[in-house]
Amino acid sequence: QVQLVESGGGLVQAGGSLRLSCAASGRTFNTYVMGWFRQAPGKEREFVASISGSGSSTDYLDSVKGRFTISRDNVKNTVFLQMNSLKPDDTAVYYCAAGPNSRSFVSWGQGTQVTVSS
Prior knowledge:
mainly beta
């Protein structure tokens, strides 16, 4: 099992940017699909983005395409989510996740709060 710790959340104005980081443990990091999910108050957790073990393939929630970019550094065992042109609807707790494939995330971080003011 991989342990995940998110950081980089905060308060920004609409149109601003944040870069989230997720530090992972374990030497098998490069075999895991990594993902970002988010959950707003009173709503279900939703998928935001994912990246393959090699970093060659990515997938995004339609509403964040063109604004968010997921990337990973397999030397530092870290995955990132660059969030640009943030909107108030992006406000949520963002969770990092890891799993053997894009449909099975088995390890989760504790989350980092992102708040976008209007």
